[in-house]
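Internal tracking record. Fields below are filled automatically when a chain is submitted to the structure queue. Please do not edit lines marked as system-generated. If the sequence contains nonstandard residues, flag them in the REMARKS field before resubmitting.
Queue: standard
Priority: normal
Entity type: single polypeptide chain
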Amino acid sequence: MNFSGCEGGRRYSAGLETTIDIGSVAFGGAGVGRLPDGRACFVHGTLPGERAAVSILRSKKSYAEAEVVRLMEVSARRVRPVCPVFGICGGCAYQHADYPLQLEIKTGQVASLLQRVGGFAEAEVRPMRPSPEPWGYRNRLSVHIHDGRVGFHGRKSHRIIGVSNCPLGNAGVNARLAALSAAPPRGAERMTLRDTSERVRGFSQVNTGAAEVLSEVVRDMLKEGGKLLVDAYCGAGFFAKPLRGRFAAVTGIEWSEGAVRAARVDALEAETYLAGAVEIHLATALKKADARETALLLDPPAEGLSPDVIRVIQEHRPVDLVYVSCDPATLSRDLKKLSTDYRLEFVQPVDMFPQTAEIESVAKLRAL
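SYSTEM-GENERATED OUTPUT FOLLOWS
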C-alpha cells in the first residue's frame, strides 16, 4: 500500500474511493480537486464545478491521481464527446467541454504557469484566440501501425487504439486514414498521413486557419517595424515573409537545411536565411545590429531556449522580443530568465489544437 497521509486515521491510498469537488483543470487536461487530507487530486475527464466519486489510482506524498467512478454533479458546460474513443485514445483532452470553456481553461492554465513557474503574479494574459475550425482542422496526422492495427497511442500507454476516422483530421486526411485502416501494412511503424489536396510550399502548419491567426498576432506585435528583424528558428519563413515589408532587413536562422532552402526560394534582396546552430548565427547577427532598431522573433521547439541562446540575447538585448511557444511551462521558465533584461508586456494564447491539451502562446517583451 502506498502511504498517502491520513485524516482521522483514514489513509487515502490506491484503491480507496472518495468524493472530490473539481475547482480547476491543470495543464494536460486533468481536473483538480482536494482530498480530505488537503492534497491535490488530479482526475481526467472532469470539469470545474463538478463533484465526482473517484477511485484513487496513484497516491504520492504531495498529490494523488484518481479516476471517475460516477459524476454526482455535472457541469452545464459538459457536452457529449464526438469521438467514440475519447478518454481511451491519448490524443484529445477536452471533447467533453464546450469550445468556449476549452478556451477559458487554457487561458487560465497559461496565467497559472506564468505565476507558478515564471513568478509573474500580475502578467497580462489575453483571452485565447480561437481556431477558425474546432473540428476537422488537421491537414496531417501521425498514426502508429502495429500487428495490423492502425491508430493512436492510448492515454498514458503505448497500446494502439484502432481508428479509421479522426474528428480532428480534415476530409483528405481521413480518406487516407480509412484506406490505411482497411489495408494496413505488416510490421510496426509510424506513418504521417497528409492531405495532398492542399498546395503548401515547404513546411506547412498543421492547422492552416489557426496558423494564420497566430501569424496575425505576431504581425500585430511587430507592427512598428525597424531596421532589422532576426527570426530565430524561422523554419521556411512562415512568420518572416509577411513581416519583410516592415523591416529594412530580415535574417532568418534555422537548423533544418531543407527549411532554409524553402525560405530562400522567393527571398528578397534584403532577406538572408542561414542554416545552422541558432546560438552561433544569432550572436553574429545581433553583434552587427543596432539593438535599438532590432526586433528578435523566437519560435523554439517545446524544450524552449538553451542557456547559450538566452546568454546571447542578454548580451545584445534587441529592443523588441516576440516569443512564440508551444509549451507554456518552458515559456514561463524562459521568460523568468529574461526578466532581468526585459519587461513582459502581455501574452496572447492561440488555440492551434482544439480538443487537445496543447497550447500555443505568443509573449511580447520590451528591453528595460
